[in-house]
Amino acid sequence: MGQLMGFLNIEKKNQKERNPLKRTKDWHEYREAMPETEVREQAARCMDCGTPYCQIGTVLNRGTSGCPIHNLIPEWNDLVYHGLWKEAYDRLAKTNNFPEFTSKACPAPCEGSCTAGFISDPVSIKSIERAIIDRAFEEGWVVPKPPLRRTGKKIAVIGSGPAGMACADQLNKIGHTVTVFERSDRAGGLLMYGIPSMKIEKNVVDRRIHLLESEGIVFKTGVDVGRDITESELKENFDAIVLCTGAGKHRDVPIEGRDLKGILPAMDYLTASNRHLLYRESLKPDFDASGKRVIVIGGGDTGEDCVATAVRQGCKSVVQFGKHGRLPGQRTAANPWPENPRVFSVDYAYEEAEELFGKDPREYYVETKKFIGDASGHVQSLLTGSFKSETEEQKEWGADMVLIAIGFRGAEDRLFDDFKIEKDPDGRVIRADERNYQTSREGIFAAGDARRGATLIVWAIEEGRKAAAAVDLYLDQKLSLLNG
């Protein structure tokens, strides 16, 4: 497997990133493809470790460890090392419906649990994965493959994000007829409107949607299930229904001044920005960061994407508040391998903001206490305290735009109320366990963030794949009962 001692003798390299200042002038992806010779050299670092922890796909200490879709990583690394690119793509496609998404937007927990990373730097798995899928599209290996026969069974999938698309793809491969209903005007869910183009350009999403359509999947956009089509109509026309609506109900900060103008949920802001780029729609003033002092509340990936978007819109300044402290520079005893490493890093948005403004935009242990407005009812500053200090240390920050990115509270209520499906206090569908994914209503299943809670794209794909298998088993058992 690879080169003997390659993980020690070959220096780890990742995809190069475009110049931080130059890339803030456009909305193209910030990473560049790695040359073939370099990719094969990086693949040579993969060791024959016996137990590939990169594939385990589990949760350790509340963090994802290994690949949830159980990619055959050592196998396709070895094939790449030997120049067998088509075979490497075939291995990758066995477990991953959409490598072009995961190789761009996944935080790569596989690398965090890579065995080589126990004593050296982990293998550059994400960069190699991107090289494989890029090569597959360039060579024309990714082509529509409609099923040879149809079963006569029809399934409705509600939601066209990664969980919904993966579920639809798997069911269609079996031969079932699948219709995907999407409330928005374009398919793709968060891949289309929630993730900025700097991570995934939208033609990449469209390309996959067109492939799925060519294989027989029907996408019906602009359809709000429960209003435009009722539950009874779906039950009458489909043999099973899968709810993959995501966890779109955002968390808020119910503090004084929250009703001031200029304070927005992060996802509303990112969606408006993506729509502006796709359709050349004019941005409403509240969604345009140009010339503004921007504060992002929330230290996660969505907050980081808000920072990068505000920088590209030409903000005057940007600061990101986090409730936790700065992560350590290396693993601590409380975060051993193969847990996902919780270590400090300077990701793309922070690198850009630091280059532009001379300072990392992140502030730690910040608790927002109050929003202060001007005479017109628009936010002009924030009053904050500290999550760390026992004494009340208050500070006032000037702000013209505030973006709230503190996570999500689960699936939106209305659709699940319409379907009479219960949710737990965290907004997740209950009774849809990992064995059958069926809700309390027979023939209605749930998968993705709606079932699991907001999480990684790889978990969404895995959820969609497993839900599809559960639906197929349900239909088989139902047919067996009918046949006596």
- The portion of residues forming beta strands comes to 5-15%
Distance between the termini: 52 Å
Helix content: 25-40%
- Give me the oligomer status: single chain
Number of helices: 18
Q: Mind telling me the CATH superfamily name of the largest domain? A: FAD/NAD(P)-binding domain
Shape type: globular
**Which blocks of ≥5 consecutive residues have pLDDT under 50?**
none
Largest sheet, spatial ordering of strands: 5-4-3-6-15
Structural class, please?
A: alpha/beta
Number of domains: 3
Overall mean pLDDT stands at 94
CATH C-level name of the largest domain: Alpha Beta
Q: What is the radius of gyration computed over CA atoms, rounded to a whole number of angstroms?
A: 23 Å
Give me the count of strands: 15
CATH topology of the largest domain: FAD/NAD(P)-binding domain
The CATH level-2 architecture of the largest domain is identified as 3-Layer(bba) Sandwich
The largest β sheet comes out as:
5 strands, parallel
Q: If you had to describe this structure to a student in words, what would you say it looks like?
A:
With 484 residues, the protein is α/β, with parallel strands linked by helices. It folds into three domains: 6-139, Alpha-helical ferredoxin (Fumarate Reductase Iron-sulfur Protein, Chain B, domain 2); 154-249 and 409-482, 3-Layer(bba) Sandwich (FAD/NAD(P)-binding domain), CATH 3.50.50.60; 263-404, 3-Layer(bba) Sandwich (FAD/NAD(P)-binding domain), CATH 3.50.50. It has 18 helices and 15 strands. α14 links the parallel β8 and β9. α3 (36-43) crosses α8 and α5 packs across α8.
